[in-house]
Amino acid sequence: MLSAAHDILSHQRTAGNQSHVDPDPTPTSHNSSSRFDCNPVSTAAVLLADILPTLIIKLLAPLGLHLLPYSPRVLTSGICAAGSFLLVAFSHSVTISLCGVVLASISSGLGEVTFLSLTAFYPSYFLLLTSPGPQDPRGEEDSDTAARQPLINNELWRVPRGQRSSPASRSCLLTFQGLLHYIIPLVLVYFAEYFINQGLFELLFFRNTFLTHAEQYRWYQMLYQAGVFASRSSLRCCPIRHTWVLALLQCLNLAFLLVDVWLSFLPSIYLIFLIIVFEGLLGGAAYVNTFHNIALETSDEHREFAMATACISDTLGISLSGLLALPLHDFLCQLT
Hints:
Layout: H1 5-10, H2 44-60, H3 70-90, H4 94-118, H5 141-144, H6 167-200, H7 213-232, H8 244-263, H9 269-297, H10 300-310, H11 312-333
Helix pairs in contact: 2-4, 2-11, 3-4, 4-10, 6-8, 6-9, 6-10, 6-11, 7-9, 8-9
């Protein structure tokens, strides 16, 4: 949906045309007074439609989603995903397309919470799953023992029972406090990368290439996802413990590309391509290493809650980036 954001917002549909992709290879200027060739609405609008329902689901998930069996959650997620593609594919208006994006967001948020929580019960898997038996959910015990550190100090639990307001709520609060040093860097990583993706990609427009504006935008999104896929698959090769380093590098990416949007000093789109691949590598590495570290450092009894709670990080960062990207788009598109 985010890769199609530029097409969803810019394509003028007619009664006989149900395609989001403009077949005309000639770039069309949407705002002739601006050097950025802006759409009337920022692609951040699609980002917000894509992320706000996910944010609501993830905020509510730790409060009781675990009481709902996994099977109906997976089924609901699948139905919403299929419905989202059909709605966007056959719609004739931006409004209906955005409704399809909302369905995709519901599917994504519910699916992510569900499958991340399921990792608390399975050591590793590649093709098929069977029902979890009496096994160690942490997986390869011997190889990971050295990397484990307690996420929560057990001394905090040695409080007289009469002084505890609620054991369950105290357990959740202490687990959340232990997660903060992973949650905060992941929020920053996703804020920076989605500010780039939905706030700057549309404005990183090169007129001296064979690619149209819409094609450039799609290439940016594809290269970003390729980088994410590669780094999310690299955990066994290159585990990273200090995820704050990834957050710092991603923020530097944002600052560099923001300056380029303002000054247009990079001479070639291929340099942008390389930076975007690097951006995707940082984002994927931050995600997979954050949840891997949490799985290692959380006790068995708290792991399912911790995984469901920590997944709010990326969604929160994305939501903040969408809210800030909208006014940035309007400001920059007024420049001549």
